[in-house]
Amino acid sequence: MTASRPLSNFHFIEEILRRRTEFTAERDLKNGSTLLHLACIRGDVEMVMALVGLDSQLCFVKDKMSMFPLQTAVIHGHGDVTRELIFTCPESLQMLTSQKETVFHLAAKNYQCDIAFEVLFEEAKKLNQKHLLHEQDDEGNTVLHIAGRKHTMLPSYKAPRNAHHALLLTVKALVALTGRKAG
């Protein structure tokens, strides 16, 4: 006997979560992750939308590593998930790690200075949160310090293809953007 319209795995899981909302906040015993953290790791934007649609407060739950879901999505470089989480919970953009790192620090630190960083920059701009680019972590590092140490170009400030000193130009562009003097 077959159903006339079979449910996809996603719709089946979504229906279970609607009926048993307490499952959304349960944690994986191994790493303390909620279902939202796991969806952020996988880059499953559909599941992220369903979970935050059921309970937007999940955006503010830390896993065992003290990471919020947005931070997890950024570390894994999932731009669509990052955008969805910021849209649903704009306050999560301001959440810091235990080392006082912003999501921009995490993007630079984890070599996610492409799509994830672009999304963060666009969303921070919309929400008047560009100051997060200048925040220092508990060791006094800004995003610029981390990008320089990791030899990572920040995409919004990429130099022309033929530039030999792309990182230096990136640094100068960021300094010009921030209005700060290089010391």
TrEMBL record:
Annotated protein name in UniProt: Uncharacterized protein
The ANK repeat ranges on this chain: 31-52
Keyword line: ANK repeat, Repeat
CC terms in the record's Gene Ontology section: plasma membrane
SMART domains cross-referenced by the UniProt entry: ANK (SM00248)
Domain of life of the organism encoding this protein: Eukaryota
One Pfam family matching this protein: Ank_2
Record carries keyword Repeat: yes
Organism per entry: Acer yangbiense
PROSITE patterns (UniProt xref): ANK_REP_REGION, ANK_REPEAT
